Amino acid sequence: MNLHNFEKSINQVIIDRGYDYYLNGHVTETSSNGIDEYHFLVEGSEDYNVIVTLGSNDDILFSQCDCPFDFGPICKHQVAVYFELIDSTKTNSNVMTHQPKLKDVLNDLSKEELITIIEEITEDDSLITNKLILKYANGRETQDTSQCRRVIQAIVNKYTGRQGFIPYKDTANFAHELGVVLDKADATDQISLSFDIASLVLIEAMEAFQYADDSDGTIGGLVNQAINQIEEIAISCKFADVGLQREIFDNIIHLSEHAVFNGWDDFKIDLLNIGIVFADTEALRNKLTEVIKTNLNEKTDDDHKKYLKEALLTILLDLVQKYGTAEEANQFLQSHLHYPSFRKKLIEQYLQKNKFEKAIALAIDGEKQDQKYAGLVQDWKELRYKAYKGLYWKEEQEKLAKELLLDGNFEYYWELKDLTKKETNEFYLELKKEIKEMNGWHMSLLYQQLIEAENDFEAILDYVKEHPSNIEKYKNILSSKFPEQVIEVYAQYIEMEAEMASNRKAYRRICYKLKDYKKVAGGEKQEELKNKLRALYIRRPAFIDELGEI
To answer: In whole angstroms, what is the distance from residue 101 CA to residue 33 CA?
Structure first.
């Protein structure tokens, strides 16, 4: 993407919003810490930082904003910055304040000067002091654990402040600083210390869900990192002495019972799953089984707790499959078929062993059991279809393939096409007619998939005539075969959009479509349509103004 034609690669709505930000002076502080790297502060409901790196010929090599926008790679703040950069190149103004690199400045200082600087910086900042000591000092295990506690508490105090809450814009930095503490767990070769540090970070990260805005999932990511670290610790001591294994295993079980995991069953399950690492030791395996059964005995009708029970039973199944007999594992599955994951496992086992009729019976029973859940019903149908295929039951296959197709699974069209006894064109025309006559947006989507797959250009043109808003999607494949009709429908679509437009942003979108219309219809047709719109909307000065920019 190049700085001078980036508009071609970005949604027009985002361009409009970014341009407004640029015009209204929301791009304030600008600086550069390198030849081609630029830093900006963009003001809005919150202040956001944008970094842009330019290459030769002003190619945008890197662009990043710390705002929460997640509907695309480029946000309005970045667009505003692009316009600011273009403006500076047009006016040949050097709006950037070039700063020397910190590393270069520090390299010129003596050791004594560096020590003095660090002492001055840390004099009134206990957090930095504790972080430096934590990272670079070689203390005893108890000292390091205590130091971690102090650093974690200092980080929490720094970001929660008087409000006791961390806003979205600070959450990523908060999670990053806790992540630095977690790095200490990875850096030490003391297994017990490593576990203690990872546990401290995990517990605080879990608590942070209650006092921080984690809309972007950074705290959730930190929780997963801490759990992964604990898993690595468990694996690292798998072949250590039994005493250390028991210590880490007991710590994991104890940690899983911490109150911070109430309502966060996924993370509790993740910790209990780590316990399987120690299952080769019979005593630890028995204890893990006992803990899981204790959790299973908690009675509740809550749907989420049912999910927890299914997850706990899955751990038990793993233990039975690895350490029990094949008969015990099969019996365990048979006893828990009311859980979808267990039914699915048993069906898949039957499919692998070519026991297709047993698979069909289980799948049909699953459809009856889960008839209120469309997603599960589809899963059982798809597994049943595999069994029919394994048995070469063509009639059953054909009937079920059509059901699955009409449920919105287009991949079964090709299966159905291979199975039909009808002549290919007759089959296609009948199916096309049937789907077209059905109501609902999902049937409309299925119809589009069908006519696209078969390159039925006449049907596509008819569809576009009925639904002009789809002209932008299909204009390229239709233009060579139906140029006049495409031009006509595109013009009709633009006129419809113009009739509904009521603000400058909408007018700009129409002008963008007019520019695209020129590629299809040519400059003369574009000018005719522009003049028609000018005449129709002479009382809309903002629209006339935007049309004049084309």
So the answer is: 6
Which runs of consecutive H residues, i.e. helices, occur in 188-217?
Answer: 191-208
Within 8 A by CB and 6+ apart from 457, the residues are 477, 478, 481, 482
DSSP helix, strand, coil percent of the chain (3-state; round to 5) = 70, 5, 25
Residue 546 buriedness (CB in 10 A; 0-12 / 13-18 / 19+): buried
**Residue 350 CB partners (closer than 8 Å, separation 6+):** 356, 358, 359, 362, 387
Residues 6+ apart with CB under 8 A from 110: none
- Which residues 6+ apart lie within 8 Å of 314 measured at CB? 341, 342
Residue located via tokens 């940690």: 255
Range with the poorest average pLDDT among 11-25, 137-151, 391-405, 522-536: 137-151
- Bridge partners (DSSP) of residue 60 are 54
| CA dist 101 → 50, 111, 113 (Å) | 18, 19, 18
Cα distances from 231 to residues 183, 199, 247, in angstroms, run 15, 11, 14
Give the model confidence (pLDDT) of 441-495 as tens digits.
Answer: 999 999 999 999 999 999 999 999 999 999 999 999 999 999 999 999 999 999 9
User: Cα separations (Å) of 261 from 70, 155, 166, 209, 277?
Assistant: 28, 22, 20, 11, 21
Written as one letter, the residue type at 218 is: T
- For 198-223, what is each residue's pLDDT tens digit? 999 999 999 999 999 999 899 999 99
CA–CA distance from 378 to each of 192, 287, 408 (Å)?
A: 48, 39, 10
CA distance 405 to 411: 7
Please name which of 54, 19, 16, 49 lies closest in space to residue 35, comparing C-alpha atoms: 54
> What is the identity of the amino acid at 241?
D
**Predicted TM-score of the model (pTM):** 0.70
CB distance 178 to 155 below 8 Å: yes
